[in-house]
User: What shape does this take?
Amino acid sequence: MIFNYKRVSTTDQNTKRQLLDISCDREYVEKISGKDTNRPELQAMLLNLRAGDVVNCHSMDRLARNTKDLLNLVEEITHKGAKIIFHKENLTFAPNKQDPYQKMMMTMLGAVAELERNLILERQREGIALAKLHGKYKGGQPKLTAQQVEEIKALINNNTPITQIAKQYGISRRTIYNYL
Assistant: This one.
């Protein structure tokens, strides 16, 4: 089977620019940070991989944002007998093909992706600290009012499914659990 893995960091972003004309049997799409490998679609794809499968990924930073995770994921994929292709970097890793130059490139480019993520986080922390200093940063705004929280608690007590409540209020299930 051929799998396409697409990832963006937030729900506001889209994956339209990734793997434009690459056909596949199954596509895994996530709108979640690549800071670690605790991603439902990534884990589902890894569980479904079999020998002879191919994984297409637009670029390495879509698979992982740190070098260790990137190397471990590529090793796990190839250990299962599957092949992974990073189209932007034009690198392919297959179970029966060990190219030390490609591994070096992957390690270096993975380190660049990790550096980029760390710089983004550093700039974000600096910006928040500066905004707090000037009294302009108050943190995130609550997604629900106190009345809405009470309504949700009542719905839960009436055995309304969490997914249904989340859709009704336009929030995630995680947000509901955080309020509880």
